[in-house]
Amino acid sequence: MRVVSNTSPLSNFPIIGRLGLLKQRYGTVRIPPTVAEELAALSHPAAQVRLKAALNEGWLIIQNPGAAPPALALRLHSGETDAIALALAIKADVLLMDERRGREAARQAGLAVAGVLDELLHAKQAGHLPDLRSEISRLRSEAHFFVDAKIEQFILSQAGE
Fold first, then answer.
1. In this structure, are residues 12 and 140 in contact, taking their beta carbons and an 8 Å threshold?
2. CATH of domain 3-115
3. Long-range contacts of 37-44 (CB under 8 A, 24+ apart)
């Protein structure tokens, strides 16, 4: 499966110690150099160690999009634009992205999109997590990840919690 990630999933998962869920599900994840630069600026020491390990193990791969960024209807940050460009260039099966405007632009470009909560729900349903509620709580408290209350209730109901 061809997977590209933007910064958010790869900055939040290692903070809560769940980066391995992406390796387990996808095998490899590709990121553009701009996303790698954003991740290098992450101030969480344990997350940095986990990200460096993923790069050294070779399942997290930095890859240049190779093409000019696509003309998008929405103005995005360079990491989001480059992640979309890479996903289009390699014909990715999924783009991991949490930012609402980026997700909207990616969908308009014809890409399938998933985010941190989608991945946690999948991991719970696959039996890799005992519960989802505690993972969302850790995202909030440790990674300062915003979760809309309505979305949280929907995700928890999908997980049977």
1. no
2. 3.40.50.1010
3. 37/79, 38/7, 38/11, 38/79, 39/7, 39/10, 39/11, 42/11, 44/11, 44/14, 44/15
User: Of the candidates 140, 112, 135, which has an alpha carbon nearest to the alpha carbon of residue 125?
Assistant: 135
> Domain residues of the chain, as ranges?
3-115
Pair of tokens at residue 57: 């193990």
Determine the length of the chain. Answer: 161
pLDDT in tens, 77-135: 888 989 999 999 999 999 999 999 899 989 998 999 999 999 999 999 999 999 999 99
Minimum mean pLDDT range among 31-45, 73-87, 110-124, 133-147: 73-87
Per DSSP, the three-state class of 142 is helix
| Per-residue confidence (pLDDT) for residue 48, from 0 to 100 | 95
